[in-house]
Amino acid sequence: MVTLGDYLFVSGLLFTLGFAGVLLRRNLIIIFMSLELMLNAANLSLVAFSRFRTNSLGQPNYDGQVFVFFIITVAAAEVAVGLAIIVALYRARRTTHVEDINSLKF
Amino acid sequence: MIREYIPVLLQALVAVGFAAGALIISVLLGKSGLRTQTKDSAYECGMVPQGEAQPRFSVKFYLVAMLFILFDLEIVFMYPWAVVYREAVVHSHVIFWSMLSFVSILMVGYVYALKKGAFDWKK
Amino acid sequence: MIPAPFLEIAVLTWGLILLMVDAFAGKTDRRGVAIAGILGLLVVLAASFFLTPPTPAAASGFWSFYTADPLAIFFKRFALVTTILVLVMAIDYAPAIRMGVPAANPHAGLGEFFTLPIFTCVGLMWMASAIDFVMIFVSLELVTMSFYVLVSFTRRNPATLEAGVKYLILSALSTGFLVYGITWIFGVTGETNLTQIGTVLATQEIDKIPLLFGIALVLVALGFKIAAVPFQIWVPDVYQGAPTPVTAFLSVGSKAAGFVVLLRVLTPFLMLPQVGRLLVGVAALTLIYGNFAALPQSNLKRLLAYSSIAHAGYLLIGVVTFSGAAVAYYLVAYLLMTLLCFAVLVVVGNSGGSDQIEDFAGLAKRSPFLAFAMLIGMISLAGVPFTAGFLGKFFIFDAAIRQHQTMLVVIGVITVGCGFYYYLKVVRAMYWLTPPADSQPVPLSALSRLTMTLLIAAIFVLGVYPQPILNALDQPAARATISMFR
After folding, report:
1. Taking residues C467-476, what's their average pLDDT?
2. Which of B1, B62, B73 sits opposite A72 (nearest CB)?
3. N or C: which terminus of chain C has fewer CB atoms within 10 Å of its end residue's CB?
4. Which domain holds residue A13?
């Protein structure tokens, strides 16, 4: 039997992997993929919470699932805008590595 | 719970086994023919092939793919809407007009993309 | 009498119409779009004074996502005023956009540059009304996403693109934290509505550790939005690289919205003492970092970026002490003085080409009016008496003393002294340094001159007569909301 804790563990793992990817990777595209992984970690635990936190009638709490829809669409829009910006950067600099993006002083 | 997934597992095993078996049998039983440069080249209906086997795609495809994802994903809101529509429309027509306004916002986005030449591949 | 949600619908529809006008306009001048946008927003601003009072106990359906309490109405007007001023700046900035966007059509990009702030404004207005985490998330993302595009708008400029990418990655990261934090709060309480979360927290015995984990993640995300230390790393680079009107919009609109959400989100979690202690620490760090890091700056946009971090610190003191009125007043003062500085910066930067403080040398001799406007903006940011900036700090410190937050007041007063040094550095450049020999007077359009005059007047009027702002939040219906923050 898969319990709520199992889902939350996997979701936490995904979130940590995504965060580690953002911190450690040097390619902008991969950093962006890691960010999406973090959002999907949240989706997984939202669905799990929604499924396991049933109301008195035994129905799932649908608020969480509706929130997942919003996260998915917002993430898609974010990817569209984000990739467009990264493509523009690649056209200007011929690189997507974060080390090469340093013309502003930090 | 896990037990219910055994048929899925079996099907996966059968699929992998069939593919692997076909490959192994063709190596064992088949004759390996002579290799010439002509034979190794890509088959293009008898024509001499032009260009590389993996041509570079135009960046325009990225734009189309992106627009497809954007418009495609908005469907997600229509499923729950369709599920409750029949019950809710009896009480008020707000549910109809709200989806219509949502779709018309998407329509504005589509017309915008059209006018800005996002679907114009030749440019 | 107009129902409150119609304000956003009107602004959104107007934005979509203008976008369509731009798409079909071909090669005509796009400044009409900006003018139409400004006029439309002015109409909505006027309409916001004729709203139907919200029905008090309508906390179901649509009204469980959306509230029209005085705090919300106040910040809707705030967003509208900010957007109008940003559009005025954007008209002045049009030549830089023409150079920065690669396209055959000389007007390419201008239409979007004028319509995107309108969509951002819708997001800000929804954020002011959001009382449900789903609504907060979606409106926050609407704002953030239009800022992604706006920040990297002049994409021929490498610094702008770089700023855009940095903003993109760090904002998306904060979104990830926000969503994951909301997930945990939802998991513990089973609710996304802030009022109901408050009820659950007050009535049920719940697991504190996952709840605090969720709140901490949400606070991290909001920390990014309001540029609080240690989540301020994106601010200087993004502010410096972004087109100047966008920087102004980011520093005022995005920050104000962050504070509204912070006030709303913190309301149900007040009974948790850990949250209060955390905020005090963040406020102190933000004040110290923002003010001291601003000292050696030589680029005016970067200086204003650090000053924006510093002001986030003062505002956080207001949040810690739950004085909603003081925060609201400070934000209005901050809007006036920051937008005034940026308006001058846009005009001077257009003629000079860069944003270094040296470029302002002798501005008082070249263009006395611009120099005077910048002087007023700077002394108000520093907090000289009889300006709005002074009263803002006064109200914040007053609230802190009443709450016995002595440490914060001491840090605040020391850092205000710091502020005098770096703000007056700009004033010194304008009034005491000699201009370069070949300098010309800076051209100034009538609309910008009028806007700057209004801003200067507002800074002085509010500096001696703050009641209109304080009263705006203190209507009888508002008492309930504000008492929650006290």
Report:
1. 73
2. B73
3. N
4. 4-100
Q: Please tell me whether residue C130 adopts helix, strand or coil conformation.
A: strand
Q: What is the CATH number of the domain that holds A90?
A: 1.10.287.3510
How many Cβ atoms are within 10 Å of A19's Cβ, its own excluded? 19
Phi/psi of residue C367, nearest 5 degrees = -140, 90
* 3-class state of residue C356 by DSSP: strand
Determine whether C328 is exposed, middle or buried from the number of CB atoms within 10 Å of its CB (0-12, 13-18, 19+): buried
Query: How many domains are contained in chain B?
Result: 2
Cα angle: A40, vertex C188, C126; to 5 degrees: 65
Helix axes C5-24 and B94-115, enclosed angle (nearest 10): 30
Domain count, chain A: 1
pLDDT tens sequence across C377-395: 999 999 999 999 999 999 9
Residue C462 resides in a domain: yes
Which positions ≥6 away from C146 have C-beta within 8 Å? C116, C117, C119, C120, C123
User: Tens of pLDDT along B84-119?
Assistant: 999 988 988 889 999 999 999 999 999 999 988 888
Smallest CA–CA distance, residue B77 to chain C, in Å, is 14
CA C330 from centroid of its chain's CA atoms = 11
Q: Which of A32, A67, A85 sits opposite C192 (nearest CB)?
A: A67
Hey, how many other C-beta atoms are within 10 angstroms of the C-beta on C57? 7
Instruction: Give A103 to chain C, closest Cα distance, Å.
Output: 7
Q: Do B65 and B25 share a domain, yes or no?
A: no
- Quote the domain boundaries for residue C409: 286-486
Q: Do B62 and A77 touch (CB under 8 A)?
A: no
SS3 B59: coil
Overall number of domains in chain C? 1
B108 shares its domain with B73: yes
